[in-house]
Write the structure tokens for this entry.
Amino acid sequence: MDDAEQDPHLPRGPARCAMALTENIDEPDILARLLYRDALMLVIDKPAGIPVHAGAGGGVNLETAFEALRFGLPRPPALAHRLDRDTSGCLVLGRNRHALATLGKLFAAGRVEKTYWALVEGVPAQREGLIDLPLRKRTPTKSWRMDVAPDGVEARTRYKVIAHDEARAWLALSPLTGRTHQLRVHCAAMGWPIAGDWIYGAGRGERRPAEVALQLHARAVAVPLYPKKPAIVVEAPAPPHMAAALAARGFGG
């Protein structure tokens, strides 16, 4: 099965993404978040607030629900890439070793096109452009916090303003490289940090209030999985916290 539209297991309409920020996810939740399915690949709509895999201390993570996504295969799917804990949206899974190897090569070569939505504090001077700022890990042995650094690794992001008012802008961000926290650091470095970013944006260094969510969403992926077919394009609707924030400013979404 190559066409997600022919799969009767896929839910229809906005209800599949109606869950709010959560601390846990179970089988019905993960099935409701299935956006695309074929013989090699799944795409799910990752909720904000849950890490994709267990950290050093264990705890709730998205992988614990992957057993529900086997659909008859001997093993559950596995992550083809990563999203930050606080980022929502399109997450690609490989259904077997061959698929994971193929997807890994596509991601490593930059052939998977990714589009993110972000609500940022401030408004870019130009309606679209390229951010070309190298990044490096802030401290070699602690955490994954990143800084802009002339001697860092190449990091490039395209941006486009979808809508804005005097104080905030709704952006489409396309990372051309895949560095840790790239979009968050790039936006902050440009003077328009992502709303709700308590690491790089306003309030950094303070404890983030539980009700504040990062306004960053993996809106779409385009995966050229099959050489003789067009890229598979999958979109995830804005999560409730972002949809509410956009609507509050009259942006829609």
User: Anything to note?
Assistant: The first strand starts at residue 34 and ends at 37. The chain is about 15% helix and 30% strand.
